[in-house]
Amino acid sequence: MKKIFSLMVACAAMFAFAACEGGSEDTDKGNNGGGEKAALATPVLTVTDVTSTSFVVTWEAVENAASYMVNDGEKNNTITETSFKMEKLNAGKYTVKVMAIPASDSNYSNSAWASISEIVTGLTPEEAASWVTYSVALPTEADAANHKYPFNSFFQTIKGTGIADIRYVVTTDMQSDASEVISNGYISDDKELEAANSDAGLVMPWSVNPQTEYRAIAQVTNGDGLYVYFDEKITTEAAPAQHPELALWVGEWTASVKEVFSWEYTVNGEFDSEENKENDDKINTTSKTQDKSFKVRIEAMPDLAFNAVAIYGMTEIELVDAEENVIEIPAFGQIDAFGYLNIINGMQVGDLGGGYTAEWLCFCESDGQLVPVLGQYITHYLEIDENKNVTTYSMGGGTLSEGNEFTAYSMDVYGINRQSNQMVPLYNFDAEHLVFDVPAGPITMVPYVGTDDDTTGGNEDNTTEEPETQSFSTGMNFKSFPVYMASAQSVVVKM
User: Fold this and answer.
1) pTM beyond cutoff 0.70
2) Which residues, listed in sequence order, are joined to residue 312 by a DSSP beta bridge?
């Protein structure tokens, strides 16, 4: 029994010795003796070679590391080098994380993440000059033919190659950061991008107030997603004395048109519920040759803008305030350098609730259809002679954001929801059948004579013959109608 016990003790001692030798060998490969793998050392990061759009992160090689995982803020990248370049960066703060990774057969585990941050300033206009140029300038004498003067206008020009996106705005806010201001600006459409990448460049005219300092800001992006901010200040010149012909326009007038844009609403049959009303009710719109006369009152509005006027009587719609007082709705215009009265679309005149505002909106002719076009642009150029006879020199218009040309036709007040780009008529549709006619086409005016009881000065249709009627396709339904947007190059009025 003693011999057997001694033999067993000897064997146990040999086994223990062998286990100790094996444990020492595993520790050299990263085992801590307890069966867990030791983590690799955490890389020590350094930033070098900083530019306005790039920087390099470097680190010393980590012992027993086979590769490194680099997180650039968007994705993980596995590399074997000990440096990583962040490039094509816009202005901002960027954080890079690096983890050392051992070989797959190693007894080591991944290191902890190391991180380092760097701020880059983004492209400067000088650095972007190879692909985009920018300028802001007051009009010259050659621009006078287009009613552009150093006291009421300036031009914003963007020209380049490979421009993928443009955002731009004009503001009197001299304090806010450009990136904050541009968030409320315009976004370029395809036609504007095409112009910006052409030899002529994209030239945007802005109608502004005299003797005022403005900031013209643009964010221009290239095909690599790199953008550059342009932020230029410009001050318009002092305006000359108020246009002498402004006084000729102030007063009461009898206005006349030879055409009307007619809306007809009809309940077609019975409907079971309000939900089905849309399917049963119809709104038809037609353009008709028909005389219409209405009384107009023009008042000067010097506090609104230089040579600005309010034009009352252009709509039969009235707003009611909280105290149920009836509020007349004026259209707005400006007397230009030639003494013409320019009537302006797109001016807001009230809040209707539910996301809708009451705005002047013009139905315009485009490709044989009448379409409602949002935007502040001139609808009529009216001229006056020495006898105070007023005629339409020309109808206004411009270019849709889709690229099609449009010509102003008939303007009235509608409900506009700019979030959904929808409009609704503001006339009362409670009746089973309703027709209302909106003045359309060129306007003539003569000084108003008579009393308010005279039918010659009121809102009355004077039909002398059977109207010639032309229908237009509008794609309308009962509740709301889609609207089109004028391109920025058509937005020539900034009151």
Assistant:
1) no
2) 297, 330
SS3 content of the chain, % helix, strand, coil (to 5): 15, 45, 40
Task: Look at the block and give the residue holding tokens 């930033």.
Answer: 47
In order of their start, the domains of the chain are 38-120 (2.60.40.10), 132-235 (2.60.40), 246-490 (no CATH)
The mean per-residue pLDDT over the stretch 92-102 comes to 97
Alpha carbon distance 380, 397 (integer Å): 9
How far is the CA of 147 from the CAs of 3, 338, 476, in angstroms? 122, 8, 37
Q: Which residues have C-beta within 8 Å of that of residue 478, sequence separation ≥ 6?
A: 277, 278, 281, 282, 283
**Beta pairing, strands 378-384 & 341-344:** antiparallel
pLDDT in tens, 370-416: 889 988 889 999 999 888 999 999 999 988 877 889 999 999 998 88
What are the C-alpha distances in Å from 117 to residues 59, 68, 114? 14, 18, 11
Whole-number Cα distances in Å, 412 to 14, 129, 227, 236, 440: 105, 46, 41, 32, 10
From the centroid of its chain, how far is CA 296?
Answer: 35
pLDDT digits (tens, 9 = 90+) for 187-231: 998 989 999 999 999 999 998 888 999 999 999 999 999 999 999
- Contact between 73 and 64 under an 8 Å Cβ cutoff? The reply is no
Going by the DSSP 8-state scheme, the letter that residue 41 receives in this structure is P
3-class SS of residue 108:
strand
